[in-house]
Amino acid sequence: MEDEQSFSDICGGRLALQRRYYSPSCREFCISCPRLSLRSLTAVTCTVWLAAYGLFTLCENSIILSAAIFITLLGLLGYLHFVKIDQETLLIIDSLGIQMTSSYASGKESTTFIEMGKVKDVIINEGIYMQKVIYYLCILLKDPVEPHGISQVVPVFQPVGCHLA
Amino acid sequence: MVLKAFFPTCCASADSGLLVGRWVPEQTSAVVLAVVHFPFIPIQVKELLARVQQASQVGVAVLGTWCHRRQDAEESLGHFLEGLGAIFSHEPWLQLCRERGSKFWSCKATRRQAPTCPGAPGEDQVMLVFYDQRKVLLSQLHPPVALPDHQAGDAVAGAGGLAAVFDTVARSEELFRSDRFDEGPVRLSHWQSEGVEASILAELAKRASGPICLLLGGLLSLVSAASACRVFQLWPLSFIWSKLSTCEQLRHRLEQLTFVFSTQKAENPTQLMRKANVLVSVFLDVALGLALLSWLHGKDRIGHLAEALVPVADHVAEELQHLLQWLMGAPAGLKMNRALDQVLGRFFLYHLHLWISYIHLMSPFIERILWHVGLSACLGLTVSLSILSDIIALLTFHIYCFYVYGARLYCLKICGLSSLWRLFRGKKWNVLRQRVDSCSYDLDQLFIGTLLFTILLFLLPTTALYYLVFTLLRLLVVAVQGLIHVLVDLINSLPLYSLGLRLCRPYRLAAGVKFRVLEHEADRPLRLLMQLWLPPHPLLGLPVPQAFLWGAHLPLEAERGQAGLTDPGHRPARHRHTATVSPPPCRGR
């Protein structure tokens, strides 16, 4: 069973939340972030190339132009592979654990699986970001040494760029 | 709670039979290890399970039935399988069934006894988790082997969650030994049922490793004993040994080889990985060294090198002479104190002249020395690079001497200046209290003190310039030596075996698992696929080499250092040898 709703994040972009219900013991929540907009890409490329052209008129060296093209391409590839998140998924399997997957725009997927035995609690935490207070979901992990202590606080979804308002 | 059934992917296409595995009551999970096919005699199956249980300390039992309907209308098989529940009783009894041509399975888990808590259903919900037996076994995710005096049950019960699953699969080697070509009474299906995986080379290596380790360990202990004998601890020799980086490198290699060829088995996969990394790096080192050796000894290159060495040393000395002449004149437009300038300049020039004559004295023997030194390349490229660094240090010894003279002179001057400046202001350094106190001086003390202060102050630019120039020269030499040391440390500590594993067999480096939900239909049990998860690479796939520092070693050395087993005098010695230090702060009157 699937269920889709749309929200907006703290920066104003549109987010889509999908809820999938596989069985009474397994559920999946999927947040899709807004795609890379053509407008911002064109703006950044134009800025870099105008700056490179300005330098070229000063130095009369054509290597600057090739370097600018190279930098733009590498920067775009790096951004797509390491920074731009397309979709984040939270899979909860009863008595096995919780799995968080982030898939990037270049197709890379990074997964984290936390066993149920290590999870102490799932809470909504408040954090101060610039001038506002934002709420984010996080998982508390048990401390192996101290039975009542907390060893780690793991935010569920990436804090940058993908918050539910 | 939901019952989790861990099912091996290799048995998904096996014929109908009995499910054999282990039941973990704490997690209500059933780990299926193999499928026993028809026909079988129940007594023989029970004997096999008892044997496996005794050998592996794992509670292996018949968990249920597996039904793979290849043709339609096999109802009789279903009834037959249900009857088996009476012969092998297990609580709960698992019944897995797969239809021909259908991806979805049906699972039932029945409990015969009345449930302890009221309201719990007689049938449990089942969740299927597929796992690849071969990869789980070879990735060594299971916790390390418990000590023999512990009860196996205690160790496994302590391991929570998925670690219990991995431990079960890893300990059941006995069950996986028989394949379908064996003529045994019981037919099993598991990951090795198509033939036990083994490699002749690996088996031979395992058999041969024992005697080889003994032999090489004995040889290495002889060498270490010889090097630790009292003759080498006497003052001149021990001082020289601590200064030469070749000795440091040889000692490091000796330690590494002793660690690799020790007869003690590796306790956990980390130690095994470390041993393998050290061995591979030693092999690479020796291979590169032999390549260098063959290159050097071909086409009389050593002769060319020896011939080029003396003119190069001459050229360096000439450049230094020009530099000193420039300093003795008016360097960079500054006006130096003529007398002091001439004295210092002539002193250094004479020193240089001595050095040149020494080099010319040595020149007939250089080719012979180089030839013998070139032979050391068969010990490894790192040893050759260390020798090169030592040769550079020896050839630029005069620069080091100049630096020391300039630094001492400058230090003395600064000490004198600071103490006379305090006198000029009417203060004194109190050694007892370690602070500056006021003091009333006599008139003649003040007069002489101020006079000396002015003299030293006006001689300061000359000394400072000499000090600056020679420090820069020394820094240059140290930078070159530092580059060589960085290369040596890189070869020493790059984990090539782990890099190779990451490329060829990534599942060996797995650090966890991840799950994927397979196609799902309502009213059917949930199916998940458990896959191995590799930790993300810290630097685009390359683990950051651990040595970009002077005298850095593998973590083993760091651990030993913490345990106080290494002589703390060795580490600073190497630093002293390569680092430039500004003159030690002088505190004095």
Characterize the structure shown.
The complex is a heterodimer of chains A (165) and B (589). By secondary structure, chain A is of the alpha+beta class. Chain A folds into two domains: 2-34 and 84-155, no CATH class; 38-83. Helices cover 26% and strands 46% of the residues of chain A. In chain A, β5 and β6 form a beta hairpin. Chain A is elongated, with a radius of gyration of 21 Å. The two termini of chain A are 25 Å apart. Chain B folds into three domains: 2-114 and 121-145 and 161-189, no CATH class; 200-295, no CATH class; 299-498, no CATH class. Chain B has 589 residues and is an alpha/beta fold. Chain B has helices at residues 42-56, 75-87, 133-138, 152-158, 162-171, 200-227, 235-243, 245-260, 269-297, 301-328, 338-375, 381-395, 397-425, 443-493, 496-504, 555-562, 570-578; strands at residues 3-8, 17-24, 29-37, 60-68, 93-98, 105-110, 123-124, 126-131, 188-189, 427-430, 435-438, 512-517, 526-533. The model of chain B is unreliable at 147-158 and 539-589 (pLDDT under 50). Chain B starts with a strand and ends in an 11-residue tail after the last helix. The A-B interface holds A 22-26, 28, 91, 93-97, 99, 101, 110-111, 113, 115-117 and B 1-2, 4, 27-28, 125, 127, 129, 160-162, 512-515, 517, 520, 525-526, 528, 533, 536.
